[in-house]
Design a protein that fits this description.
heterodimer; A: 140 residues; alpha+beta; five-stranded antiparallel beta sheet; 5 helices; 30% helix; B: alpha+beta; elongated
Amino acid sequence: MRGEEGAVLVQLQRPLDQARIDRYAQVSGDRNPLHVDPAFAAASQFGGTVAHGLLLLAYASEALARAWGLRWLESGRLRARFRAPARPGQLLTVRVLAAQGATAALVQVLDQGGQVLLSAEAQLPLAPSGHPQKGGDSPG
Amino acid sequence: MPLPSLDQLPRGHRFAPTAYPLDEAWVEAYLQAVEDATTPALAPQAVPPVAVLALAVRALLEQARLPPGSLHLSQELTCHRLPHRGQTVTAQATIVSRGERQGWLLLGIELLVEGEGGEPLVSGRATLGLPAGGEGR
């Protein structure tokens, strides 16, 4: 999937609540109290629980899979920065934006106020011909 | 024996490789937890690369305590091969950098997940920020 630089290639939304964070903690094995213990987290610098960074990265990766299909899952690369905590009660927007070249994209996870919580640069390898291979479709 | 605190471990520390089966129940639970309908639609047997990256973090957390207040600052990810259901993967983690800045201990941790034949599936680097002067020091 291609687009002019900055064009939104894929956008999806994910509501975030404590139940979702707890489910991720259970399946990932990361039960850091900052994520799952509201009383502990309330006394931390965050003032409440926050989502795991890798949960946000999973949302970003799914959005890239929608944009680029199996090529992303098989051979993609990504560099992500966690810029602000994601908290229960937020509605997250995940965006894949076209970057320079057909094999590069920017990914953002934003809260409902537009604050960037995660930003990432993603890339696909070039095909042997030097041209990007055909990506996948976008189910949504 | 209590686990060491992550901030006690030196640069070069290698966590013991840990094997995890990508069984159906765990993969389904993971896909539900992250609400990922795209990966199974693209390839029904596939396991998202970020899922196996999470197992590398799990291997680390099973061998060291994360000091309270620790932050995941950044993450790099490279997908080498698509993991699939039924596979047993081995997750490894190594502390490759350690330094202090502005009251934080910054740890760079290389993560690698391999398939049964030792073929790399996913690799990456996590940067963690730990409160300097934390429990381990």
